[in-house]
Protein 1
Amino acid sequence: EVQLLESGGVLVRPGESLRLSCAASGFTFSDYALSWVRQAPGKGLEWVASIDGSGGRRYYAVSVQGRFTFSRDNSKNTVFLQMNSLRADDTATYYCAKDRRPSGTGFGFEFDSWGHGTPVTVSS
Amino acid sequence: EIVMTQSPATLSVSPGERATLSCRTSENINTYVAWYQQKPGQAPRLLIYGASTRATGLPARFSGSGSGTEFTLTISSLQSDDSAVYYCHQYVSWPLTFGGGTKVEIK
């Protein structure tokens, strides 16, 4: 059974940094791309970033480009989202999501597994 | 960026009736669309991918259709457990985008 377990979400002040983690199990970790999708309170889903299975290719939403860094440690079956210069509009529940298909010729497809999410609040 | 527009924002349907949810895209995305169901306090759940392929274990009352810029999620006989928000998602190009969601309520 695929499991994704996010952690690291807390209350921080504007301008501060935070690192989220997502520990995975139940699949061959390095074969699959993972993504972060966030959801502001009472709002819809917003894609944040994706990383391929090897960690060599990443894509970011414009709203986080230059502030967030997505990385992975395939030896620990874990991905990380380093979030710098946090703003109030980054407040959201952050979900880790797995591609349904192995990242062979591409990645960033439909998401067949999601974690329970970790809440991030940015407020002074 | 490909914009996904879902309608209606809220849909109220009686048990046993059909629910039809629409998703329109600002560009042709072929069939690179997925649908998710999200219940309060829960993570999204994949329902449909490739516009019309049901995810593993999904009841047959859920179906997806469409291609290009117009897509539909149909729940043929609504059950009380189907009360949720439904999102469409395009994955043909970066940035990945989601629709604003349709909330399905049971009358």
Protein 2
Amino acid sequence: DAEITQSPRHKITETGRQVTLACHQTWNHNNMFWYRQDLGHGLRLIHYSYGVQDTNKGEVSDGYSVSRSNTEDLPLTLESAASSQTSVYFCASSEGGGHTDTQYFGPGTRLTVL
Amino acid sequence: GQNIDQPTEMTATEGAIVQINCTYQTSGFNGLFWYQQHAGEAPTFLSYNVLDGLEEKGRFSSFLSRSKGYSYLLLKELQMKDSASYLCAVIDSNYQLIWGAGTKLIIKP
């Protein structure tokens, strides 16, 4: 069965370190998204991609970067982790239609920055 | 600015019916999603509305009124497994998805 996976599921790091969160989908979807979810806030879009070599900034992109070298993967990198980036991170994918198609979410990565 | 309002938390009894409301003020409208999210898990798709009216899917129904900027999710015959957060999300005029903060639904026996 097709799926979307994230790794690691839990990560503790220190302020200033570079961290990369992995996202891998076997749906063969063109679109991939990264969100963060914090208490009291809705899902907030960090970056998204509509296909290989395409990346776009979301509403909370500062301090984060992504690259899309193939269809299956969209790793999220925190260049220099900050305590404000402690959050739960979800990756999602959709077949087409930009943001208008149903999104399928990975299980999430809980990141703690000390 | 863009805004989606949902109640933070609701409580209902097993076997009963509950209605979760979502009101939105966005720059344009191109559709509305409802997702379910159990604690510690990923959101999963429930419904999509783009035209006014009621869409029924088993025990769950979703209603949309574009003129009022309003939607609701109706859950019937509540079961304990329905305890979860319910997320409303609107597609705006730029085809961006705007998420509400979600409504935590607690089901009591």
Protein 3
Amino acid sequence: EIVMTQSPATLSVSPGERATLSCRASQSLSSNLAWYQQKPGQAPRLLIYGASTRATGIPVRFSGSGSGTEFTLTISSLQSEDFAVYYCQQYNYWWTFGQGTKVEIK
Amino acid sequence: EVQLVESGGGLIQPGGSLRLSCAASGLTVSSNYMSWVRQAPGKGLEWVSIIYSGGHTYYADSVEGRFTISRDNSKNTLYLHMNNLGAEDTAVYYCATNGEGYFDYWGQGTLVTVSS
């Protein structure tokens, strides 16, 4: 099983600031990595696939980068609606998720 | 517009069985790769099972032999039959499409609580 490790567990950020979330895989994924946003009581929402491609309707302030085993999700200027939990997910071999990073208001 | 609507969750005793449904609109279930993903209360996401458009099915080790994924093409509906349920199966169960590996469309989820 490919283990996905996200850091930090919690990120405290002020509105308008930049947020950088990390995701590490236990083995190489090439670019087979996705990012999701989940708000309380809601289903996850696809943000990024292929490590860096924004899904339909996702604002440009969300960007993904990385390949192999190290990946990053950057939110360039946090808006109030961006405070949520973010998950990375690999689809290189079966499907596994990271444990999530909670982005909270500082 | 794609919509996935799950139903069938509820409170079930340990060792019991339950069938979840996922009614789809805006897409054809039989033409898509469809998965179930679950989330235990306060926890992360776990892939549970997939059915490919060709009919092949696969399961996470944690549910292998107890859960069965299926579909009814005439109803455009995906199912998850769950047997011998335990406390560890308590979760919100989502159906989702994952044709390219990532999960692009999700339902709203249905809560399964296994407790005596």
Protein 4
Amino acid sequence: DQQVKQNSPSLSVQEGRISILNCDYTNSMFDYFLWYKKYPAEGPTFLISISSIKDKNEDGRFTVFLNKSAKHLSLHIVPSQPGDSAVYFCAATTNDYKLSFGAGTTVTVRA
Amino acid sequence: DTGVSQNPRHKITKRGQNVTFRCDPISEHNRLYWYRQTLGQGPEFLTYFQNEAQLEKSRLLSDRFSAERPKGSFSTLEIQRTEQGASAMYLCASSSLSENSYEQYFGPGTRLTVT
């Protein structure tokens, strides 16, 4: 049962433009959401997170938006850089701490 | 501290053999997690430890899988009588019992291929 879904398997964006990655979830008990970035042959790297009591969290070029009523979150990367080319995973958890991941979105930043 | 480490990075084994993987978490982290990732999917939770206590096991963790964390430091994941369906990337992560304990830090993974 896939509780976290990333419906876009890939995204191609020009360098300097905005990348928007989307994520939907079904479990209303999720109270914390995270984005991870993964390069080939490496483990996922924590990027940014948001608590369910907030609707926005910003860290440098990365902003995560949470819409609880729609059970939807998004990650904005502005401006996109070549080093951002990677697979991005959305994850969610309840207070039991185990993470439920989406299938990932592969981002390619074109020069 | 160089982060979470996992050994070996790659393991090729024949069906029916036993394999064991090791994970060394970030030294001050109390929690340690095991996940499995197959091609085109995100990581799936297998089990987690708080110190040496194994607190939860996923139904994905059949009775051929066993995990330990003696003394609350490193952890091992053993798969007995491997089947081809066990071929996957096995990821270990750790986190601390603190305000931001939801954030888990992952190792590079062990890629298992069962032939």
